[in-house]
Amino acid sequence: LRQKIAACDPRLAYIGRQKGMFSMLPVTPDQVVRLREEFAIYVAGSGRFNVCGMGDDQVDYFCNSVKAVIDG
C-alpha cells in the first residue's frame, strides 16, 4: 500500500520509505475538512492516517482525493 501511495504523486513519495501502521499527509487543517466533506476520507486533524486500514481497491480514490485537496 505504501508503495502505491508513494507512486501516485511525488509529494507523497516519502510514504513509501516509511514503516508502520500510520503516516502523515502534507495537508492543513482546512484541507483535512475538505477531505472529509467532499471526499468522505477521514484522517486526523493533523493529517495522520491509517495506512493499514486502506484496501488495495481504495488507493486510487485516496490518492486522487488527496491530490485534489493539495492542489486546491
Summarize the structure.
The chain is mainly α and 72 residues long. Helix content is 43%, strand content 8%.
Overall mean pLDDT score?
Answer: 96
Give the amount of beta strand, in percent: 5-15%
Strand order of the largest sheet: 1-2
Order of helices and strands: HEHEH
Question: Please, could you describe this protein's structure?
Answer:
With 72 residues, the chain is mainly alpha-helical. It has helices spanning 2-8, 29-39, 59-71, and strands at residues 22-24, 48-50. Strands 1-2 form a two-stranded antiparallel sheet. Helix 2 crosses helix 3. The protein is globular. The relative contact order is 0.25. The mean pLDDT is 96.
List the helices and strands and how they pair.
Layout: H1 2-8, E1 22-24, H2 29-39, E2 48-50, H3 59-71
Antiparallel strand pairs: 1-2
Helix pairs in contact: 2-3
Which key terms come to mind for this protein?
mainly alpha; two-stranded antiparallel sheet; 3 helices; globular
